[in-house]
Amino acid sequence: MSIRLLSRRGAIGKSWHAVALRDAAERLLGVGRAGSGKADARAGRVQWLDVTTGVARGDVLDADGELYRARLDLPAFPSDDREEFLRIARARPELPARLAGGDYPEEFERELAGSELSLLPRGAAELSHDCSCLDWPGPCRHVAALVYVLVETVDDKPVHLLTLRGLTLEDLVAPREAASPRRAEPGEEHDGGAADGSGEANGDPSDPVPAPYDPTRTDPALLAEVIGADPARIIARFYGSAAAGDTQTDVG
User: What InterPro entries does the record tag this protein with (predicted)?
Assistant: First the structure.
């Protein structure tokens, strides 16, 4: 099944980011290849398009009936650039939704430029190509046709630019930091977090868990029901609580 372009005449690509991708690619293609590639793309000669990290590829049907495998490469970010990109992107929590909805904010691209980054090719030199045909060194008309299919696809789905750079929408979402436990205030040490002595937490679900078990404040009779009379007696004696004598009479 071939891919049919929506554009039937004129320039291919309407959004600013599709136009930027097209302009960079056309500087690589040259005028002659750009014209033949555009015609082939509109004729539905590109059979499929697959976009993965650093690579867009597809089969292109030649006029002689042969299928050729064409590819266009835009390298993924190296680790340092990736971290810097994520730092900038995560400061814009709306960015994943906008990209998923087909909108790549131009102001975000300008912000990336301050760190010498771009989701788009920063010139023809950043793009490379290959094809299974014998038109070497190229780029051939099959690569050119693939380029125009990619441009129109990116027009509608700019998230493909993210994919080429080795990123996903999920990467743009800043990880949630674990909440640091709050230090217990005076009066909270032995009453489960309530400063008023009521033994109830004061309303914040992020409050720390109740204070650790304190055997000196435990009813020996209740403790005996859980762990048995002899262990309860030993605990009461060990801590020398006032209840130690009661333990021997109540649970002995």
Answer: Znf_SWIM (IPR007527)
